[in-house]
Amino acid sequence: MEALVTLYQHPYDPLHPPVCFDEKSYQLLAPTRSPLPMQPGHAQRQDYEYKREGTRNLCVFVEALAGFRPVLVTQRRPKRDWALALRYLVDVLYPDAEWVDLVLDNLNTHTDVALVETFGKAAADRIWSRLRLHYTPYHASWLNMAEIEIGILSRQCLRRRLPDEQTLATEIIAWEHWRNTQQAKIHWSFSVEDRRCVFAEHYSDSLAC
Fold it and tell me: What is the pLDDT of residue 27?
């Protein structure tokens, strides 16, 4: 935990950008009846019934210090989609970075095996060499700032029925562009010193606050 908090306190370095990654499943819901249009004094109204149209997975990357958050919409959440997301990260989003400090959760799909199975050993080694992985401790996924951004995405964009993947992707692209244009940043305030105070029982007297 302390190593991760220390990473968040480092000054911004474009050659070694710290990027947080997390995923969210989203349920597509289509209306069964046409909604009633807006009228003066009345918002649009929709029937309580809906039709399930499957789920999609959202891969959310967050570079908090730069106010940058690209989002990928994928069909599922297997190892292959995670491997494709990592290749997109190093080859498309950060092609000029020496390496990316990637913060992510402890899932069994988050290993180099997923890259090897998807791309082969040579390509997997190339992608893996461009990454420095920082796993959040078990039961401490709140240390991943991507969770904060997913909460914002859910409140500002996803609290409504979206019927298909194209509509979902279009709405997320619009939200992503708006947030990135604003360069909206996450101001992380939980420091190493805070950690030592909160978890003082795990430190010797010389290290606790």
Answer: 93
- In this predicted model, what pLDDT tens digit does every residue of 21-54 receive, in sequence order? 999 999 998 877 777 787 888 777 776 777 888 9
Residues 17 and 100 sit within 8 Å (Cβ to Cβ):
yes
| Mean pLDDT of all residues in 72-91 | 90
Cα distance between residue 19 and residue 145, in whole Å: 9
Q: In this structure, how many other beta carbons lie within 10 angstroms of the beta carbon of residue 90? A: 19
Q: Which CATH superfamily hosts domain 2-28+51-202?
A: Ribonuclease H-like superfamily/Ribonuclease H (3.30.420.10)
Among the listed residues 22, 19, 6, 5, the one whose alpha carbon sits nearest the alpha carbon of residue 107: 22
In this prediction the pTM is: 0.82
- Structural domain spans, the chain: 2-28+51-202
